[in-house]
Amino acid sequence: MEWPTFLDEYEKLVFRMNTPRVVIDNAVCSTATLVKVDSARRHGILLEAVQVLTDLNLSIKKAYISSDGRWFMDVFHVTDQNGDKLTDENVISYIEKSLATIHYQKSNEINGLTALELTGTDRVGLLSEVFAVLADLQCNVVDAKVWTHNGRIASLIYVKDTDSGCQIEDSQRIERIEALLRNVLKGDNDILSAKTLVSMPVTHMERRLHQMMFADRDYERKPILHFPEDCPVVTVQNWTERDYSIVNIQCKDRFKLLFDVVCTLTDMDYVVFHATINTSRDRGCLEFYIRHKDGSPINSEPERQRVIQCLQAAIQRRASEGVRLELCTEDRQSLLADVTRTFRENGLNVTRAEISTSGETARNFFYVTDAVGNSADSKTIESVRGKIGMSNLKVKELPLVYQTNKGKSEDEAVGVGGAVLLSLGSLVRRNLYNLGLIRSYS
């Protein structure tokens, strides 16, 4: 008769043992809010914690991660988009509740929408053709994200039926949508690699975009770098004594940098045991101690090179080239088709896009260059704005974190690669020494 009570108490104990403990502190640091998370370790939990913070558009300025044994501890130094500490109690409360339940979060599918996944060879006007097909097929685009990298394009588009406002379920209609979009993606020279897929809506669009481009093997293609000085410096070396592989990354700092790196390591089935993240001015310095899920380090030169290529690609996919344009207007059928057709007719190429609707309002961001990837001419931009509507389409400056710090010295700009090889993780090693996990960090 007492078994049910005993089981209830046992379940409560297990819940308390596995529920992350979250502390948010505004007193310790004068320039950032500290978010501390202690939890039982499992694969992917670090990514989920970072995802909670970055989905709130918070910047992670510094971080320390440690997870030996069955427990992990994360400390994040975060600020809002203006670089200020967090003061909004609603935001703080949301962070506490979200991080405390990451063990138990379930898929929150976007009901009533059909998800379209597209990959293929990028070209000028491709997005215009995709949106034109969807408009002709009476598909209303509700949300979408588009990334381009190394001549490839990946897009995740959520649509609903224009007439009914509901999810598209007719199998013949879905097959027709897939076939027509596949023809658009193939163009004249991409017969084998163009892909379309109708799937259930995913919980995190940006992680899915990383997975799509990774599956498309964009990291193996010849890089298209208009600013080669911004190429990430990634080194991987083994620490044989502790069976760790040490990944060092030095690159231009930007929003969601940590998310992109951790997302890639997680999806490649590596486990982060220790890490330090530090940003200074416009530079990001990231160091990870990783192993395979079976506990072994990277064990071959081809694998080491693949990790370097994949991390460089993950960082560069979100790098926003071109002028950032914001379209804010009343939503209507064929809006995206008309806007992107205007871009194409004026020789503008969309390198990245974020599409969203709220009620009857569409708010879309486009990053555009000229046809060969160079900066778009200001007269062309103003001409396009005049055709679409000066008040509807506005030029938005990139956040400061994307801009090059022209005042830094030459040593600061080029000295990062050597520092990577010499440091061998001095800060993390010091932390491991303090934890009693190694005898010396000298």
From TrEMBL:
Gene3D superfamilies documented for this protein: 3.30.70.260
Keyword Repeat: yes
MF (Gene Ontology): amino acid binding
Function comment: Binds amino acids.
Keywords: Repeat
Official protein name in the record: ACT domain-containing protein ACR
SUPFAM superfamilies per record: ACT-like
InterPro entries: ACR1-12, ACT-like_dom_sf, ACT_dom
Domain (ACT) ranges: 34-109, 115-192, 324-403
The keyword Membrane is assigned to this record: no
Cleaved signal peptide residues: none
